[in-house]
Amino acid sequence: MAGGAASAERSQLEPISVSSPRVRDGGPLPSDYSCKGSAGNPPLRWSRVPDGTKSVAIVVDNNARYGGEVNWVVFDIDPRTNELAEGSVPVGAVEGGTTAGKVGYSPPCNTQENYRFTVYALDAKVGLDKGASLDKTLKSIAGKTIAWGRLTAAHIE
Q1: Could you tell me the sign of the dihedral formed by the alpha carbons of 79, 138, 110, 114, in that order?
Q2: What is the pLDDT at residue 13?
Q3: Can you name the residues that pair with 124 across neighbouring β-strands?
Q4: What are 70's strand-pairing partners?
Q5: Does position 43 have pLDDT exceeding 90, yes or no?
Q6: Strand, helix or coil at 115?
Q7: Which domains does the chain carry?
Q8: DSSP state string for 29-89
Q9: What are the pLDDT digits (tens) for 57-104?
Q10: Residue 103 gets which letter from DSSP?
Q11: Which distant-in-sequence residues (6+ apart) come within 8 Å of 139 by Cβ?
């Protein structure tokens, strides 16, 4: 399938619904999940993952005006999984490297930035090792995405 056809097909998909019992879309990120806290990642829930999904990935980043930062990448999540507990990684999932080169959730620190929690439905596993480079991981996720959804925290509380 040509890239343009794939893009047109993907844009017609229903978005994945992403929510959290601790973070309201457009609301602040509780400081527990920032570098001021110790809770790790916030809990997330998602639904409306399309049929044919072979794995799920989550990317946490900010959309800073002067270059974004990726705070967490977790991939190869079982497609039957529909939630992520606070401070945890689903069984069998793999964490890639962040912008800082660390593996795992790197709590955000910039209180004025928006932080995005994006859930991707993929048509195949990413298939990379733990700590894989951010560039490689994001390219693999982008090439396999069939649907996505996002929860955005407007700033850190």
Answers
A1: negative
A2: 61
A3: none
A4: 61
A5: yes
A6: strand
A7: 3-153 (3.90.280.10)
A8: BPGGGSTT-SS-SPPEEEE-PPTT--EEEEEEEE--TT--EEEEEEEEE-TT--EE-TT--
A9: 999 999 766 678 999 999 999 999 999 999 999 999 999 999 999 999
A10: B
A11: none
